[in-house]
Amino acid sequence: MANITLAIAPVFLVILLGFVLRKAALVEAALWSPMERLTYIVTFPALLISNLAGADLAGLPWQRVGLAVALTTLAIAALAWILGRRWGEPPLPGRRLDGPARGALFQAAIRPNTFVGLAAAGGLLGPAGITLTALCVAVVVPMVNVLCVAVLSLTRPGPGGDRRAALRRTLVGIVTNPLILACIVGIALNVSGLGLPPVIGPTLEVIGRAALPLGLMAVGAGLAVAPEEPRPDSALLPALGLSATLKLILSPLIALLLALILGLRGEALVAVAIYGGLPCAASAYILARQMGGNGPLTARLISAQTLLAALSMPLVAGLVLALAG
């Protein structure tokens, strides 16, 4: 267990560094947004392409990995939707959640933080962990974006006349998503046998090395920004309790169970379970604001889940590594 904690601890220490740098204003606030953008469109795609293009995909059970994370996402999405709608009705306790709160709960329950996932898998499994997580990204990111837009459209207050436009924007966003495109390019270079050219390959590797530290520091910097509405939200405790239970406990357990049923073992089993237990990504807050959801509640759920994941992820990793042998 100590070795697992030591492998994952650097991930959260770099997140903490980003938090301290932003909170103490040691780095100009105006620099964080461009840095996050640079990570999203340049360094992370470079990491994914260089890793996938050079990986031994023929030796990986990529179909079963993709199926395991896809089914996990659908299962948690169904639970989040049902619990969000039924919360406060007998026999469930508490007050009912309004539409925007249900949307925040849904996003927090199913949207994974890719930065944390790649860093944690890389720390535990090395390059193979990054490759397996990249395959998970290629499957889950499009699913999550479509599901979240659909739910936020259904739960937003007021008329929903722009739902078709929102879905269209999401589909365009999926097609042009740098992470998805990078996965496609890397896999295409691999299966075609072309690989990376002699000069381009090392260049992408150098650029990709900056992805994880920059991405994790950006996650920490995001935690240092207070929501625009500091007043307490009555939906915070139930939404946090439900989303954290679904995302950090049930999701990795379901992913682990499905992976075992599908015959995954070793590194693939570990990667699927770790990916299932990732905290919510900051992109949930951006989408909530764009679609009239509860942005402040979403921001609080993201922050709380990231902190809780520092405790839950080593436990999940310990369990799955014990099973993986």
Automatic annotation (TrEMBL):
Record GO biological process: transmembrane transport
Pfam families reported in the protein's UniProt record: Mem_trans
Any one of the GO CC terms: plasma membrane
Membrane topology: Multi-pass membrane protein
Highest taxon in the source lineage: Bacteria
This protein's UniProt keywords: Cell membrane, Membrane, Transmembrane, Transmembrane helix, Transport
Transmembrane segments: 39-58, 65-84, 132-154, 175-200, 237-262, 268-288, 300-324
Compartment list: Cell membrane
Protein family membership: Belongs to the auxin efflux carrier (TC 2.A.69) family.
Name this polypeptide is given: Transporter
Organism: Roseospirillum parvum
Lineage: Bacteria, Pseudomonadati, Pseudomonadota, Alphaproteobacteria, Rhodospirillales
